[in-house]
From TrEMBL, chain A:
GO term, biological process aspect, one: mRNA splicing, via spliceosome
Protein's recorded name: U6 snRNA-associated Sm-like protein LSm8
Native species: Habropoda laboriosa
Record key words, sorted: Acetylation, mRNA processing, mRNA splicing, Nucleus, Ribonucleoprotein, RNA-binding, Spliceosome, Transferase
Function: Plays role in pre-mRNA splicing as component of the U4/U6-U5 tri-snRNP complex that is involved in spliceosome assembly, and as component of the precatalytic spliceosome (spliceosome B complex). The heptameric LSM2-8 complex binds specifically to the 3'-terminal U-tract of U6 snRNA.
Sm domain residues: 1-76
Family matches, as PANTHER family: LSM1, U6 SNRNA-ASSOCIATED SM-LIKE PROTEIN LSM8
Gene3D superfamilies: 2.30.30.100
Family the UniProt entry places it in: Belongs to the snRNP Sm proteins family.
Gene behind this protein: LSM8
Assembly notes: Component of the precatalytic spliceosome (spliceosome B complex). Component of the U4/U6-U5 tri-snRNP complex, a building block of the precatalytic spliceosome (spliceosome B complex). The U4/U6-U5 tri-snRNP complex is composed of the U4, U6 and U5 snRNAs and at least PRPF3, PRPF4, PRPF6, PRPF8, PRPF31, SNRNP200, TXNL4A, SNRNP40, SNRPB, SNRPD1, SNRPD2, SNRPD3, SNRPE, SNRPF, SNRPG, DDX23, CD2BP2, PPIH, SNU13, EFTUD2, SART1 and USP39, plus LSM2, LSM3, LSM4, LSM5, LSM6, LSM7 and LSM8.
The organism's place on the tree of life at top rank: Eukaryota
GO cellular component: precatalytic spliceosome; U4/U6 x U5 tri-snRNP complex; U6 snRNP
Compartment(s) where it occurs, according to its Swiss-Prot or TrEMBL record: Nucleus
KW Acetylation (keyword) present: yes
TrEMBL record, chain B:
Top-level taxonomic group: Eukaryota
Protein's name according to its UniProt entry: U6 snRNA-associated Sm-like protein LSm7
GO MF annotation terms: RNA binding
All copies of domain Sm, residue ranges: 17-97
Quaternary structure and interacting proteins, as annotated: Component of the precatalytic spliceosome (spliceosome B complex). Component of the U4/U6-U5 tri-snRNP complex, a building block of the precatalytic spliceosome (spliceosome B complex). The U4/U6-U5 tri-snRNP complex is composed of the U4, U6 and U5 snRNAs and at least PRPF3, PRPF4, PRPF6, PRPF8, PRPF31, SNRNP200, TXNL4A, SNRNP40, SNRPB, SNRPD1, SNRPD2, SNRPD3, SNRPE, SNRPF, SNRPG, DDX23, CD2BP2, PPIH, SNU13, EFTUD2, SART1 and USP39, plus LSM2, LSM3, LSM4, LSM5, LSM6, LSM7 and LSM8.
Subcellular location: Nucleus
Taxonomic source organism: Melipona bicolor
Main localization (coarse): nucleus
Keyword annotations: Acetylation, mRNA processing, mRNA splicing, Nucleus, Ribonucleoprotein, RNA-binding, Spliceosome
Gene designation: LSM7
Gene Ontology biological process terms, A to Z: mRNA splicing, via spliceosome; nuclear-transcribed mRNA catabolic process
InterPro entries, sorted: Lsm7, Lsm7/SmG-like, LSM_dom_sf, Sm, Sm_dom_euk/arc
Automatic annotation (TrEMBL), chain C:
Described purpose of this protein according to its UniProt entry: Binds specifically to the 3'-terminal U-tract of U6 snRNA.
Organism from which the protein derives: Melipona bicolor
Family: Belongs to the snRNP Sm proteins family.
Coiled-coil region list: none
Listed PANTHER family: SMALL NUCLEAR RIBONUCLEOPROTEIN SM (PTHR23338)
Protein name per the record: U6 snRNA-associated Sm-like protein LSm4
Molecular function (Gene Ontology), one example: RNA binding
Annotated ranges, domain Sm: 2-75
Pfam families in the record: LSM
Example GO biological process: mRNA splicing, via spliceosome
Keyword field contains RNA-binding: yes
Subcellular location: Nucleus
Organism phylogeny: Eukaryota, Metazoa, Ecdysozoa, Arthropoda, Hexapoda
Complex formation: LSm subunits form a heteromer with a doughnut shape.
Length: 96, 109, 139
């Protein structure tokens, strides 16, 4: 496919949406408009005052309009992260 | 109203039906939310397949000046209006719509 | 798997829909179309701040205003058969030289962007049932 997402199918991906949120999950499918099926997903909520909070969400369809970045996640490397020690400002949303 | 052809047979698979049948809301009060945050309610007098609407006795629900998505209690009467379909975000019947307490709290407890 | 196939499979299941304006809608999916427009029933609407709640018997939401939909986990397992049926149907259409949807031909008809009749029958039980001779295609 022209979008290049084909190689990510059934892999763990990290998605940043235009409202500044970060979703992690298994890419199960997508279409021409980059609507995305994300399975076994969770959201990572970043904050400067505490570690990264992970919110379990499950199966998602994310509408392509809101998808800013899709990146493949290295499961092994990700597992080595100590999320409770990470402090970061939340991303702000995209201004249209 | 079901359409029939000259032989009195119902037309079959003539058209791809819209998933929204607005005819059931004709002469009924509907609530409409618009892109950008405006909200209104009025009696549906007419519509087209592009979701352009004609509403009568329309009330607009006014918003917090600082937050265009937050309603306050104020309303204003708009009377007879045409709503542009492309900006319609949501349609629901006013009948049966009610403000409620947080319904998710007891489920989690 | 296509997101809209998953959504179609999720009909009659509960789901949560978040709109771009931040409001969320919890309800059962009644119907959806190829623009992701949806009808929900027995809906609870939550305001953007999560401080106000409304109950509504049903509502129609324009697809383009959706941010995302949360769907029950089990629905993804129900799609699979559907997809297989579909690819069979598509192979069939190719053989008959009807690989394109009848998009744009529907001007003047009631529906928008009328799909050709081929698209309606695609993957449906009629076609699939009448033509079982389709072979497993190698790609």
């Amino acid at each position: 496919m022209a979008s290049g997402l084909e190689s990510y199918v059934n892999h763990t991906v990290s998605i940043i949406t235009s409202d500044g949120r970060n979703f992690i999950g298994t890419l199960k499918g997508f279409d021409q408009t980059i609507n995305i099926i994300l399975d076994e997903s969770h959201e990572r909520v970043y904050s400067t005052t505490q570690g990264v909070e992970q919110v379990v969400l499950g199966l998602h369809i994310i509408r392509g309009d809101n998808v800013a970045i899709v990146g493949e996640l290295d499961d092994e490397m990700d597992a080595r992260l100590d999320l409770s020690a990470i402090r970061a400002d939340p991303l702000s949303s995209i201004v249209h | 109203m079901s359409q029939q052809n000259a032989h009195g047979e119902p037309k079959e698979r003539k058209k791809k039906e819209s998933i929204l049948d607005l005819s059931k809301y004709l002469e009924k009060n509907i609530r409409v939310k618009f892109a950008g945050g405006r909200e209104a309610a009025g009696i549906l007098k007419g519509y087209d397949p592009l979701l352009n609407l004609v509403l009568d006795n329309t009330t607009e629900y006014l918003r917090d000046p600082d937050d265009p998505y937050k309603l306050n209690q104020d309303t204003r009467m708009l009377g007879l209006v045409v709503c542009r379909g492309t900006s319609v975000v949501l349609i629901c019947p006013v009948d049966g719509m009610e403000s409620i307490q947080n319904p998710f709290i007891q489920q989690e407890g | 798997m296509l997101p809209l196939s998953l959504l179609r499979t999720a009909q009659n299941h509960p789901m949560l829909v978040e709109l771009k304006n931040g409001e969320t809608y919890n309800g059962h999916l009644v119907s959806c179309d190829s623009w992701m427009n949806i009808n929900l029933r027995e809906v609870i609407c939550t305001s953007r701040d999560g401080d106000k709640f409304w109950r509504m018997p049903e509502c129609y939401i324009r697809g383009s205003t959706i941010k995302y939909l949360r769907i029950p986990d089990e629905v993804i397992d129900m799609v699979k058969e559907d997809v297989q049926l579909k690819s069979r149907g598509r192979g069939e259409m190719k053989g008959r030289g009807q690989s394109q949807r009848g998009r744009g031909s529907g001007r003047g008809t009631f529906g928008r962007g009328g799909r050709g009749p081929a698209a309606l029958g695609r993957g449906g039980s009629n076609q699939g049932g009448n033509k079982p001779q389709n072979k497993a295609r190698t790609k």
